[in-house]
UniProtKB/TrEMBL annotation:
UniProt keyword terms in alphabetical order: Lyase, Repeat
Residue span(s) of domain Squalene cyclase C-terminal: 311-537
Lineage of the organism: Bacteria, Pseudomonadati, Planctomycetota, Planctomycetia, Pirellulales
Entry keyword annotation includes Repeat: yes
Coiled-coil residue spans: none
Domain Prenyltransferase alpha-alpha toroid: 93-133
Chain intervals with Polar residues compositional bias: 599-610
Protein name (Swiss-Prot/TrEMBL): Squalene--hopene cyclase
Length: 705
């Protein structure tokens, strides 16, 4: 490998064009701020969510006792409410009728490949809609859908998609049983009675679903108990005695919005399951139905979740602060107060999480997790320089609370799970590389007092042990090709639907993993770069975007140019560019810090920033071999060339307005695909900002990454 000076150069023309492109992206991102000063974003409309909402409302109509409900509750069974539900069902079916893919199946979003789960849910929704007098899918569409299901091997294909995790398989089959497509005896009998135990005991009880699915466990378990084959007498008695107590658990876990986790599918599964047993008048059903009515989008569809406001805001702050010319005009007291107010300060009723974390939104259904919490901590650190003294103190305290919350959540193997420490090995509650890298990066950013001093706040040692464990976990999880596999993001054009570009980028951005793992990761990204200069994506990128332009007036008006050889996504390309540029920035910091030993002029000590003191010191202590000379070996001609090609791809994407077409790279529980309108803007702004910092001759080593 040809080693270069860790002071890379780019032509003035490239930097100028990048500057102009970044200014445009920043304007668009700033324009997306809402009146309250933060970002809300816009999640994709989802055929899967729409199908479950339709099924839930149809189940309520089908099983309501009109006379009983009219006299006592006057809600969904009143004539006007019934007409409203029929109208919503009709709009939902109209939306679904336009979402069928050419192969006959349905995907999670309008840009997603068909999958067996969504296809079954749409078939169930169509069947239930017809039963309540609404227009189902046309017979020709049903025929094509059934042919797709048959080719996908039906229920065997569904089970194979999710493996040992029953979190989503059982709800789908429950929905099919409600629609009369399968027998109730085919639905697994879930031990809903276990919900009466404290949440801390769930993992010891070997629950067949993860923690966030307890509402579905209770509702679906009860439906199967009442409508399926009768269990053995002792078990049947226990479950019968547990019905009322577990319903009480459902009520306590339901947030003020009525939507469990703010998620349409989870809420819909609860509503349809209880309605199928004739209990449409339960408060849980009425509140869940209210959530479904209020969360419907224009066009008769539902998103996978209400919004990702906290997550989108944290990422937007990071992206804007990456710009070397950022003036902080995005900051406001309203933004700071809103972000501070999103921190959960009481034990959460849904997962039992201790105070101190952040969820993905400010809405009542959010649950604190180990991806949104690190993002919020990092965002607060970037807001601190712009805040007054009082808010700086509040931010400091909030960051410390968040850091301690993360440390308590760390698993024994050194990684971070999503919600619950030590839950098990099911998806979303096992240790994950992207979450671990994000948590480690956030812990490095929290100001700590020196070990020898006394006073309030954590000491350096409080964070060093978790960091060491995290580094060992990440090193063990690195794939032979140098990549890392994430949990929350995927690539639909890969056979296994994984997204190593995202996972590798997140670990590289966090840093501290050691020279050899970092070099291997850089090599992976170099080899993964596509001929068009970008990363990720696949053959479906050009095809799907062209389809949108041809069928949707919104995208036809944008009319982005689609090159014949387009393969990459804007989001994944931006992540790879940011990661490689971060390696260069880190190498420059290491070189400048080591300047007196190497005879090089020192432009400024990297340790002068209090928020990066422990990060740099910890890197030297944990990885002594990672000296400036060794680290610079990762920065070579190939890396610089790859960054420049990636930047060119991003600049051309913005010029062609392809950055306005978000790509489905996100996973939301059990491989449910989504895309977020702000992701291309956020990721591109961060990447171009990091590029300008890395290729700026007047590099500021004190900038807090």
């Amino acid at each position: 490998m040809t080693t270069l000076s860790p002071s890379p150069t780019a032509s003035d023309a490239t930097r100028q064009k990048c500057r102009e492109t970044l200014d445009r992206v920043r304007r668009e991102l700033l324009q997306a701020q809402n009146d309250a000063g933060h970002w809300t974003g816009q999640l994709a409309a989802s055929a899967l969510s729409t199908a479950t909402a339709v099924s839930a409302m149809a189940a309520v109509l089908q099983h309501s006792d009109s006379q009983h409900s009219d006299s006592q509750h006057g809600d969904s069974s009143q004539p006007q409410q019934q007409e409203l539900l029929r109208s919503l069902i009709g709009q939902g079916m109209e939306y679904l009728s336009g979402q069928q893919n050419g192969d006959g199946g349905f995907g999670d979003t309008d840009r997603s490949h068909s999958n067996i789960a969504t296809s079954y849910l749409v078939l169930s929704a169509s069947t239930l809609a017809e039963k309540v007098g609404q227009q189902p899918l046309p017979s020709t569409a049903i025929d094509k859908l059934q042919q797709y299901i048959d080719r996908s091997e039906g229920l065997d294909g569904l089970r194979r998609r999710y493996g040992k995790d029953k979190t989503f398989v059982v709800p789908i089959m429950n929905n099919m049983a409600i629609a009369g497509l399968i027998s109730w005896d085919d639905v697994a009998a879930l031990p809903f009675e276990a919900a009466v135990f404290p949440q801390s005991m769930y993992r010891f009880l070997q629950m067949p679903v993860v923690s966030y699915a307890i509402p579905a466990l209770v509702a679906i378990g009860q439906a199967r108990h009442f409508l399926g084959r009768r269990a053995f007498a002792p078990i049947r008695l226990i479950r019968s005695l547990s019905v009322r107590r577990t319903l009480s658990v459902l009520e306590k876990m339901q947030p003020a919005s009525g939507g469990y986790l703010e998620a349409t599918p989870l809420t819909a599964f609860v509503v349809m399951s209880l309605a199928a047993t004739g209990r449409c008048d339960l408060p849980v059903v009425r509140n869940g139905l209210r959530f479904l009515k209020e969360s419907m989008l224009d066009g008769g569809c539902w998103p996978i979740d209400t919004n990702l406001a906290t997550w989108a805001t944290s990422l937007s702050i990071h992206a804007l602060a990456c710009d070397p010319d950022d003036d902080g005009r995005w900051y406001s007291e309203r933004l700071a107060d809103w972000h501070l107010g999103c921190q959960h300060l009481t034990r959460h009723p849904f997962t039992g999480a201790e105070p101190g974390g952040w969820g993905w939104t400010d809405l009542s259904g959010a649950v604190p997790d180990s991806d949104d919490t690190p993002a919020a901590i990092l965002a607060l650190g970037l807001m601190q320089p712009h805040a007054d003294e009082s808010r700086r103190h509040q931010m400091h305290e909030a960051m410390i609370r968040g850091g301690r919350w993360l440390i308590r959540l760390q698993n024994r193997n050194g990684g971070w799970p999503t919600f619950c420490r030590g839950w098990g090995k099911l998806p979303f509650d096992r240790s994950s590389t992207d979450l671990t890298a994000h948590a480690m990066r956030a812990l490095k950013s929290i100001p700590c007092r020196p070990e020898a001093s006394r006073g309030a706040g954590p000491s350096q040692a409080d964070f060093q042990r978790p960091e060491r464990k995290a580094i060992r976990f990440l090193n063990r999880q690195q794939q032979p090709d140098g990549s890392w596999m994430p949990l929350w993001f995927g690539n639909q054009d890969r056979d296994d639907e994984s997204n190593p570009v995202y996972g590798t980028a997140k670990v590289l951005i966090a840093g501290g993993i050691g020279t050899r793992p970092e070099a291997a990761a850089c090599d992976y990204l170099l080899h993964a770069q596509n001929p068009d200069g970008g990363w990720g994506g696949g053959p479906s990128v050009a095809t799907k975007i062209r389809g949108l332009i041809d069928s949707d007036p919104e995208y036809a008006s944008i009319a982005p140019l689609i090159p014949d050889d387009l393969h990459s996504s804007v989001e994944e390309t931006a992540l790879a560019v940011e990661a490689l540029a971060t390696v260069i920035l880190r190498t420059r910091d290491q070189t400048e810090f080591a300047a007196p030993q190497s005879g090089m002029p020192q432009s400024g000590p990297a340790l002068s920033n209090p928020r990066s003191d422990r990060a740099n010191a910890g890197l030297t202590e944990l990885r002594p071999e990672c000296s400036a000379a060794v680290c610079s070996a990762a920065v070579n001609d190939a890396v610089l060339a790859a960054i420049l090609r990636g930047v060119e791809f991003l600049m051309q994407s913005v010029e062609d307005r392809r950055h306005q077409v978000a790509w489905p790279i996100g996973f939301y529980f059990a491989k449910l695909w989504y895309h977020e309108r702000l992701y291309p803007l956020i990721f591109t702004a961060a990447a171009l900002g990091k590029f300008l910092r890395a290729f700026n001759e007047e590099h500021d080593p004190n900038w807090p990454r």
